[in-house]
Amino acid sequence: MTLLPRHGKTHLANIPYGYYAAAVSFFFVILLIGARKLIPARQQNCSKRTKWALSSARGGSPLLCLVILYATLLGPFVHHYSLLGHVGLYLKRLGRLSYVLATLNLFLTLRPNYLLPGYVYLDLIPLHKWLSRSLCLLALAHGVGFLVKWALDSQVSFVAKAFYNIPNLAGLAVGVMMALMILLSVKPVRRFSYRSFYVTHTVGAWVFVFLTAYHARPGVFVPYTLINAGLFILYILSKTVPARGVELVSKSTDDVNNCLTRIVLPRKAMPEEFAPGSHLRISPYRRVNPLYYMLPSHPYTVASVPEDKDVELIVREHADGFRLLTGLGYTIQNHYESVPRECLQKATRVALVCGGSGLSYALPIFRHFASGEKADQVKYLRLIWLVRDKYDVSVLGNIGSLTSSVAQFDIFVTRSVPPDDTIESGSKLSSAQQQSPITDDLEFELESFGDQLDQNGALITPEIPNLPSGLASSFHFGRKLDWMTDLAQFVEKEELDSTWLIACGPKGLNDAAKLYAQQNEINLASETYAL
User: Fold this and answer.
1) pTM of the full predicted structure?
2) Is residue 366 part of a domain?
3) Alpha helical stretches, state H, 114-264
4) Tens of pLDDT along 143-186?
5) Residue 228 CA neighbour count, 13 Å, CB half
6) Distance of alpha carbon 391 from alpha carbon 248, whole angstroms
7) Less packed terminus of the chain by CB within 10 Å, N or C?
8) pLDDT tens for residues 102-138?
9) Which residues span the domain enclosing 79?
10) Where are the transmembrane segments (predicted)?
């Protein structure tokens, strides 16, 4: 009698493919870095298709990047062994591929990631989201494929294979978790309970990495599990080492008028130096509490600049949402840059358009460019703020005097903006600009201010609060923002490379900003306030 190996010559056949997938992942990261460094932010003198490809490559677009990644991975997927004759081998290959891609996915989620220079942490979230979904689908295809294979094979017991074999049972548990993660990642479900999505997402990542290490045959512990464990350690360190406890200094709100809230934190909430427009994340739990790691922290955009004596936030709080309260302790996890450094360092013409609490993003950037250090560099600087109610303006407080001679601050006030800043809305593009539809436009109603308005709708009395001294500013009531008219002096053909439009607010506003930037061939930095 001759004993044959249980899996024959194919048992180790997937190990080389795993190394190939790891190498592809490594060069994929190199391509991401190279695209951001070598491709200019503004494409010119090329076709529309080329512009799309270049901007997508530079921005880490999931549509382009994942097509390139999977085309490279799946090209040699079926090799040497016939597909129909070795179904089990290729099902195992799917599982190994999903595990190797988990390493790439974990790497992309590190915050801050100093190994991806040129990217701010929000840039790669879409790529992370779709890569996560795709590797979950690969893992599910692996698991469902084996379940079907066992069910159709009369020579094996389905129950024994799926439930009595402990490594296979671990794989089944991973498959259930992957299916749950995909379900909860769908936008309506995620919006309904973001906390459920986040907990499942966090637990699922750990379950996938460590249960799969037990389930996989041949093993994946070296090098993949070790690398993934190292990335988990970095993730934990990023949430603990820079963390610091704080309490609110003050909180200014007006529950009667349901307007924006101004929250003041101690200066130690941020490091001595930080970029304008940075984010911080706040947890209501201490580092010793397991919930600190299991439940989501809450992101806020810092409305201050490093020179301020406090750290201020501008938010719109909701009755059923998370609220910062005075007298309670919170933990600041870390801070992250959100504005391209090229913009902060080289821009000469800057327009900022923000809606509601998006002012927290635009205001520190505006102050950065209006500072004395930028006096000789900046030739055009304008901040346009769209708010629902005149009472929202009270969050400005005293933001100090500005030395810039070109800075302008325009405030458009309306009562017909949707009651939630995160509801999709936009602003008006003139008919000459409307080459593609922009829906959910912001509608501005004329309020009865009588003689307080001049013929252009600008407020001519000083009743609405403190604005910086020396700042050319005006209030507007009863008309939409017209991008063509209100930014008529913004774009200069000779300075397109250093012209930046910065937008922050609901999706509709950012869509309008994107269209304006494309039509005028200028640089765009934008941020959408939505889950």
Assistant:
1) 0.86
2) yes
3) 125-152, 158-159, 166-185, 187-192, 194-215, 226-240
4) 999 999 999 999 999 999 999 999 999 999 999 999 999 999 99
5) 25
6) 23
7) N
8) 999 999 999 888 899 889 888 999 999 999 999 999 9
9) 8-240
10) 20-39, 60-79, 99-122, 134-152, 164-184, 196-214, 220-237
